[in-house]
Specification:
five-stranded parallel sheet, 2 domains, 11 helices, FAD/NAD(P)-binding domain, alpha/beta, 427 residues, four-stranded parallel sheet
Length: 427
């Protein structure tokens, strides 16, 4: 039986008990900053939420949102599509509500940033000057670390770590896989986008295979020595998919050195494993536009001041979302939306010479091991002397050994959270 969630409970799933919502933001005095221009690059969770918050807080600011496409396909929830019980259409949002709020939405790709001249050049040659630039472009991939795979082979060996065509490609490959076949997933070291999504993907592929191709098996090659929510996922696998999943960790089983797209073979330090479908997730870095802006450092990520999410490398530029490096904040949609409000307020206060308030963020993570088997791991964070600190009193993690009813309730919360955060940003 489904629970009747109250509006307050629904909002708390999205924002955390201590974080603000867009409607709860307070417009600072003299926040017009009329004539100022803010350009936001990236139409995902972080960029869209920032653009909308700035326009709400300071209507006099001219806000441009550069989105790669006319619609955005959300990564959270996309594993349901791969697992056969979600629709890509339900993952897809448009920018109509953001444009209606007064943000100038441009469908295009930012190619270069001239940080000295403060201007962004788009692929079609359009030049946008800015007073403040917000970079929320997401991730790029290191394609040169495993022999045999590249950006070009992603049409054969999908990563599906950016939702959209890659999601449906992997789905089609699983549908075509024979019963008794092998699905191989290759996972990278961190930092990476949404670490628990690896375990969730393995789980939901296992759910699909169990219900349609029960003789099949899954082999995971993880470059790490442990993975996010490992104990919860392993408990679920033993209960739901006994004997189906073989999870190999680098510490004991070596790492993947090569993948042959033609023979569908994964080669490790120790052996060669044939597969019918291979999901190769490369190691990640901040999207290339951050390097053009000068915000990326030698790690491949963008260090920021957690009080404002301003780049520590280049002035008048803020970086949020997956591209930002502010450990221990995770790279996740909930974090990006929470940080967007901090970033928006900081930009407005800078343009209006106001004080920067204390900052707190919420990182809520809901994962599925099956359609009715979920768990939660959420925490609040705060700025402590220029560093991100964990508020341990707010930590909430589903326990081991929970009842089926509790797991079903967490799965329901996962769906409610996703619907709520998508509505908050784009609705």
């Amino acid at each position: 039986m489904k629970r009747a969630w109250t509006r307050r409970q629904a909002i708390s799933l999205i924002t955390g008990a201590s974080a603000t919502t867009l409607s709860g933001l307070i417009r600072p005095r003299k926040a017009n900053a009329r004539g100022a221009k803010v350009v936001v690059v990236g139409g995902g969770f972080g960029g869209s939420a920032t653009a909308r918050a700035i326009k709400y807080l300071a209507p006099g600011i001219e806000v441009f949102l550069i989105a790669a496409d006319a619609a955005f396909v959300c990564c959270p929830g996309s594993n349901k599509v791969i697992g056969g019980f979600g629709r890509i259409e339900d993952q897809t949002v448009g920018y109509g509500a953001i444009a209606k709020a007064g943000v100038k939405v441009i469908a295009g790709r930012a190619e270069t940033v001239d940080a000295d001249a403060r201007r962004v050049t788009l692929a079609d040659g359009t030049v946008l000057p800015y007073d403040k630039l917000v970079l929320s472009p997401g991730i790029g991939f290191h394609w040169d670390e495993v022999e045999g795979v590249s950006a070009a082979t992603a049409e054969e060996i999908p990563h599906s770590w950016q939702a959209g065509p890659q999601t449906t490609l992997l789905r089609r490959q699983l549908e075509a896989m024979p019963d008794g076949g092998t699905f191989a997933l290759v996972a990278p070291v961190g930092p990476l986008r949404c670490p628990p999504a690896v375990g969730e993907r393995v789980s939901l592929v296992a759910h699909y295979l169990k219900t349609t191709k029960p003789k099949s098996k899954i082999v995971v090659f993880d470059a790490k020595s442990k993975f996010a929510l490992q104990d919860l996922f392993e408990e679920a696998w033993e209960e739901l998919y006994p004997g189906m999943i073989e999870y190999r960790l680098a510490e004991t089983d070596g790492i993947v050195r090569a993948i042959d797209p033609e023979t569908r073979t994964v080669s490790t330090d120790f052996d060669d494993i044939p597969a019918d479908v291979i999901n190769f997730i490369p190691r990640q870095h901040a999207a290339d536009i951050t390097d053009s802006a000068g915000a990326m450092d030698e790690t491949g990520w963008c260090p920021v001041d957690p009080a404002t999410f301003a780049s520590t490398r280049v002035p008048h530029v803020h970086v949020i979302g997956d591209a930002a490096f502010a450990p221990p904040l995770p790279k996740a949609a909930a974090t990006a939306v929470s940080v967007a409000e901090t970033c928006a307020q900081a930009i407005i206060r800078d343009l209006t010479q106001g004080a920067v308030p204390d900052t707190r963020w919420h990182a809520g993570c809901f994962s599925l091991a099956a359609p009715s088997h979920g768990f939660e791991a959420s925490t609040d964070f705060y700025n402590k002397d220029g560093h991100v600190a964990v508020d341990e009193a707010t930590m909430n993690r589903s326990p081991l050994g929970a009842s089926g009813e509790d797991r079903a309730a967490d799965a329901e919360k996962a769906e409610l959270w996703l619907t709520g955060i998508m509505g908050k940003v784009w609705g």
